[in-house]
Amino acid sequence: QKEVEQNSGPLSVPEGAIASLNCTYSDRVSQSFFWYRQYSGKSPELIMSIYSNGDKEDGRFTAQLNKASQYVSLLIRDSQPSDSATYLCAVNGDNFNKFYFGSGTKLNVKP
Amino acid sequence: EAQVTQNPRYLITVTGKKLTVTCSQNMNHEYMSWYRQDPGLGLRQIYYSMNVEVTDKGDVPEGYKVSRKEKRNFPLILESPSPNQTSLYFCASSSGPRLGYGYTFGSGTRLTVV
């Protein structure tokens, strides 16, 4: 059973702060990594993907990947109350077509 | 509008009564997948399809069937539903998740089996 671990939270940050969300995975051969945001009662929506070690930036979001340590993180700069949601980490498995999701970290951004 | 359409949104059924949840995408994606989401367990992959007539099991395929006769459609079939299949189901499609393209998810189907 592949494992993708996330702290369930809730993670509370004040508006304007940096929110840091972390995810670890168990399968060393994983190649593709994704972050999704899911508002309560809604379906997940893709924030960004990353598959090379290092940082990838998209607007206020930065994904960081460290394959040696088997973790991927998401930084949200200038957090807004509208960022309050559950953030899901997803990782592909050894056959590359199977994907495993963490159970998500709930983020609360307080005005 | 690019989207994945699932129907129905809500369904209450009785144990053993066959049901089908439909899923259709209009983005010409080759890859489609079904997930169930349960509290504390996250999203778990049921089945996926890499193209027409090509399907494979995910992590929790027991009690489910799928078919992919057309590129746009990927129905989920529960031949004999049981209460442990009560869950929130999502269909998703992608042009290539292994290439770094993420999923577009449908709105979800909340299934209750009594």
Briefly characterize the structure.
The complex is a heterodimer of chains A (111) and B (114). Helix content of chain A is 0%, strand content 53%.
What does this structure look like?
The complex is a heterodimer of chains A (111) and B (114). Chain A is an all-beta fold and 111 residues long. Chain A has no helices and 11 strands. In chain A, the strands form 2 sheets. In chain A, strands 2, 4, 5, 9, 10 and 11 form a 6-stranded mixed β-sheet that branches. In chain A, strand 6 (54-58) and strand 7 form a beta hairpin. Chain A is globular. Chain A starts with a strand and ends with a strand. Chain B has 114 residues and is mostly beta strands. Chain B contains no helices and 11 strands. Chain B has strands spanning 4-7, 10-13, 19-25, 31-38, 42-51, 54-57, 65-66, 76-78, 87-94, 104-105, 109-113. In chain B, the strands form 2 sheets. In chain B, strands 2, 4, 5, 6, 9, 10 and 11 form a 7-stranded mixed β-sheet that branches. In chain B, strands 1-3-8-7 form a 4-stranded antiparallel β-sheet, with no helix packed on it. The radius of gyration of chain B is 13 Å and the shape is globular. The relative contact order of chain B is 0.32. The chains are: A mainly beta (111), B mainly beta (114). At the A-B interface, strand 5, strand 9 and strand 10 of A face strand 4, strand 5 and strand 10 of B.
How are the elements arranged and paired?
The complex is a heterodimer of chains A (111) and B (114).
Chain A: E1 4-5, E2 11-14, E3 19-25, E4 33-38, E5 45-50, E6 54-58, E7 61-66, E8 71-76, E9 85-92, E10 99-101, E11 105-110
Parallel strand pairs in A: 2-11
Antiparallel strand pairs in A: 1-3, 3-8, 4-5, 4-9, 6-7, 7-8, 9-10, 9-11
Chain B: E1 4-7, E2 10-13, E3 19-25, E4 31-38, E5 42-51, E6 54-57, E7 65-66, E8 76-78, E9 87-94, E10 104-105, E11 109-113
Parallel strand pairs in B: 2-11
Antiparallel strand pairs in B: 1-3, 3-8, 4-5, 4-9, 5-6, 7-8, 9-10, 9-11
